[in-house]
Structure prediction request, 480 residues.
Amino acid sequence: MTTSVDPAAAHGDTAAHPEPGSVPELVPTAEPAAQAPAVPAAAGPAPAPAAVTPAPTPAPAPTAARPPLRLGLTILQLAALGIVGWGVLSVLFSLLGTGLGLVLVLGVGLVILIGLVYALYGVAWFEVERVSALYRLAVPPLRLRPRVEPGFAGYLRTIGRQSIDGAMWRGIASFVLASVAGTVMLLLFQGLVWAILSAAGASPAFDALSGSLGIGSGDGGSATIGLWGPISAVIVGILCVAGIIGIALLHRSVSVGIVRAGAQTAQLTRQVQVSARQREGAVRAADLERTRIERDLHDGVQPRLVSVGMTLGLAQQKIAEDPEGAKQLIAEAHTSTKAAITELRQLARGIHASVLDDRGLDAALSALASRSHIPVLLDVRLQGRCSREAETAVYFAIAESLTNAAKHSRASECRVVVRLREEGTLWARVEDNGIGGARVLPGGGLDGISNRVLAVGGTVRLDSPQSGPTSLEVSVPCAS
Prediction:
C-alpha cells in the first residue's frame, strides 16, 4: 500500500520512543526491487526516492566436473605433487633449520623464521584452494591472522599467532599427505608401465628371472616362462591401476575431510561471534529500554500525577469555604489527569504496539504515520507476515526514526519504504529531507535501534551528511 499522511490529520499523540539520539554512521544502500514480495538482499547505491530497480538475476552456479574427469584430475595433481611436493617440503625444512641455527646471529634467523611462517601459509593456502577447486567445496579461503596491536612487538605477536593457526597446519597436513600419496602413485605408474611392456614382450625382465632360477635351459622352461610372463604382467597391471584409483579416492576422502574440518571450525567460530554480538545487543537494548521508561515516568507522568494530587488536596480544603474555587481546582486536576493518561498511553505504545500483533506491520505503520508531526509517505508492500520479533524490531526502528526526524532533522517530509525480500529478509528504509548530520549517541534512542536490530540478527545502515538528507536502512531476517 502507498499512503500519504498529512500532519493536519494527526491527533495530539507523539510518535513512539520520544527520545533523541542518532544512528551509527554507515553506508547508504539502494531501495529494493518492485517485485512484491521480494527485493535483492544486498542493496547498492541509493537511487532517487521514486526509482525502483529490478532485482539482479543470480549468476548460474558453475557446472561440476564429471566423476571420471575429476578422478583423472586428482591422479594428475597427485602425480605432480609426488614430484614437486617433496622439493617444497625440503625447502621448508631447510628454512626451519637455517632460521633456528642463525636465530642468535644479529637477528638473521628471526627474519628467516618469519619468512618460514609466510611460506607455510602460502603452501597451506595453495592446498586449500587446490582441494576446494578440485572437488567444488564451498569453503572460505585461508586468510592471514589480522594484526590487532601496533608496533613491531604487535607484529611479532601476530606472526606468533599465525604460526600456531590450526587452519594453516591443517592445510600443511593435507599437502604432506598428498605428496606421500603422489609418491606412491608414481611407483604404481612405474609398475603399470613395466607390466605393459612385459605383456608386450618388450621387457627382458622374465629372461633375467628365468636365468636366475635356472629354468630357462630347456624348451619346457622357456615355454613355461612364455606362458606365465604375460599373465603375471596383466595381474600386476590390474593391481597397479586399482592402486592408483584407490589412492585417488582415498586422497579425496582425506583431503576433503581436512579442508572441511577447517571450514566448519571457522563457521562455528563465526556463529559464536554472531551469537555473542546478538546477546550483547539484546542486553544493551533491554537496558536502554528500561532507562527510557524510567526517565519518561520520572520526568513526565510522575510530576503530573503529583501535581494532580496537590491540586485535589487544595480543592478539598476549599470545598467548604470557596466552592467555586474548589470546582476550578477539580477541573484543573481533571485536565491534568487526562494529560497523564495520554502520556501513559504513549508510553505503553512505545513498549508494545498491540495493533502490530492484531493487524500486522502495514496497519501498525499506518497508525504510526498518522500520529507523525511531519508528512509521511508510506510505501509498504508485504505479502504474508514475518516473525513477531522481526516485525517488532522494524516497527520500532521506523518509529524512532520518525521521532528523531520530527525533533532534530527540521525535515518537512519523510518517506518510509518496506519490502519483503526473496531471501526471507524484512527490509525497511526511512528517508527525510532534513539537515542531516545524525551521529550515534550512547544511550540515545537510535542507539537503541542498533541494539534492537542486532539482537534479532539484523543490520542497520545510515547515510546522513551534514547538509542532508538522512536515510536509514534496516534489514532483519524474517524468521528471526
